[in-house]
């Protein structure tokens, strides 16, 4: 038990697996209720809430569900519903009292997930390396670093969610992203095109009312091992030429080979922009696409002007 008497996330994980072990698909609410009953949580524990208003035990079960999903121990067949996997049954047979994130590194999917989170954190740290903050700002800097690290996990979760979505859903999502980034201007329009025989064009952002200036989009919802290579970029350029334009954005949930990136940089001179899964989800967080604000913190400081008696 934690100091607040609510079981820890590590303690919730094996109970979640136990509840799901019968193979029946359950909603998040059903899992909350059954886990709480199986652990015989008291009414006081069930009533305890976080500052956000969410029940503490539900919040921890949700984090348990998230980690188990990313590790491949449970499966999310549809939004807000879960079933157990064969790997999950393997863990459940051990009758564990707790199952930590460190324990989960025995599963390749979890290890790969954590490596991506770590890579995003390293990327953030490299941006601020050498930037010394005044000592008085250390606490603020620590809070900002914590936010960035939290968002690194959100970006990783988001990329996984996009990979699990349908191709059509992904195509619409990237069109929405470019629209949110302002490419439609004040009088433009967006269009999802993706369909058989679309010539490799999945979306169009028309930047003016007459459609004289447009950005064409190709979206590839690929697994990590399906990397975009040079021929795909050449084909996209050919599709753009058929439309009478050279401006396009190629977006994928995976990544581009160095050869594909060089082709876009050296031969098309910025006319074709490549966005991989890392940059994609970073942009989606920045522009608020497919995410919502979880919590807002307010920091205060003394208003020195208030104490300037000469202004009174």
Automatic annotation (TrEMBL):
EC annotation from Swiss-Prot or TrEMBL: 3.1.21.-
Restriction system protein Mrr-like N-terminal domain sequence ranges: 11-93
Start and end residues of each Restriction endonuclease type IV Mrr domain: 163-284
Keyword vocabulary terms for this entry: Endonuclease, Hydrolase, Nuclease
EC top class, as a word: hydrolase
Molecular function terms, GO-annotated: DNA binding; restriction endodeoxyribonuclease activity
Signal peptide: none
GO BP field: DNA restriction-modification system
Family matches, as PANTHER family: MRR RESTRICTION SYSTEM PROTEIN (PTHR30015), TYPE IV METHYL-DIRECTED RESTRICTION ENZYME ECOKMRR (PTHR30015:SF7)
Protein's name according to its UniProt entry: Restriction endonuclease
Species this protein is from: Corynebacterium pygosceleis
């Amino acid at each position: 038990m934690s100091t607040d008497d609510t079981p820890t996330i590590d303690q919730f994980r094996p109970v979640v697996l136990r509840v799901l072990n019968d193979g029946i698909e359950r909603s998040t609410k059903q899992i909350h209720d059954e886990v709480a009953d199986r652990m015989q949580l008291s009414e006081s524990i069930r009533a305890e809430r976080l500052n956000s208003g969410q029940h503490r035990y539900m919040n921890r079960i949700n984090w348990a569900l998230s980690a188990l999903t990313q590790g491949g121990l449970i499966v999310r067949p549809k939004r807000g519903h879960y079933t157990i996997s064969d790997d999950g049954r393997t863990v459940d047979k051990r009758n564990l009292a707790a199952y930590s994130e460190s324990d989960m590194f025995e599963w390749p999917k979890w290890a790969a997930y954590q490596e991506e989170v770590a890579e995003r954190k390293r990327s953030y740290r490299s941006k601020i390396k050498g930037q010394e903050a005044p000592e008085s700002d250390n606490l603020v800097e620590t809070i900002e670093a914590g936010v960035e690290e939290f968002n690194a996990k959100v970006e990783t979760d988001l990329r996984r969610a996009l990979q699990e979505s349908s191709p059509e859903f992904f195509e619409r999502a990237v069109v929405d992203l470019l629209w949110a980034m302002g490419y439609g201007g004040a009088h433009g329009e967006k269009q999802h095109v993706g369909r058989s025989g679309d010539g490799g064009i999945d979306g169009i952002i028309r930047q003016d009312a007459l459609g004289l200036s447009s950005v064409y989009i190709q979206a590839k919802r690929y697994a990590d091992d399906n990397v975009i290579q040079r021929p795909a970029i050449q084909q996209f350029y050919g599709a753009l030429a058929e439309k009478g334009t050279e401006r396009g954005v190629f977006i994928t949930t995976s990544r581009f080979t160095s050869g594909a990136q060089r082709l876009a940089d050296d031969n098309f001179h910025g006319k074709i922009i490549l966005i991989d899964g890392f940059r994609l989800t970073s942009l989606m967080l920045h522009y608020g696409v497919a995410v919502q604000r979880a919590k807002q913190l307010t920091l205060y400081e003394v208003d020195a002007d208030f104490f300037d008696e000469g202004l009174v």
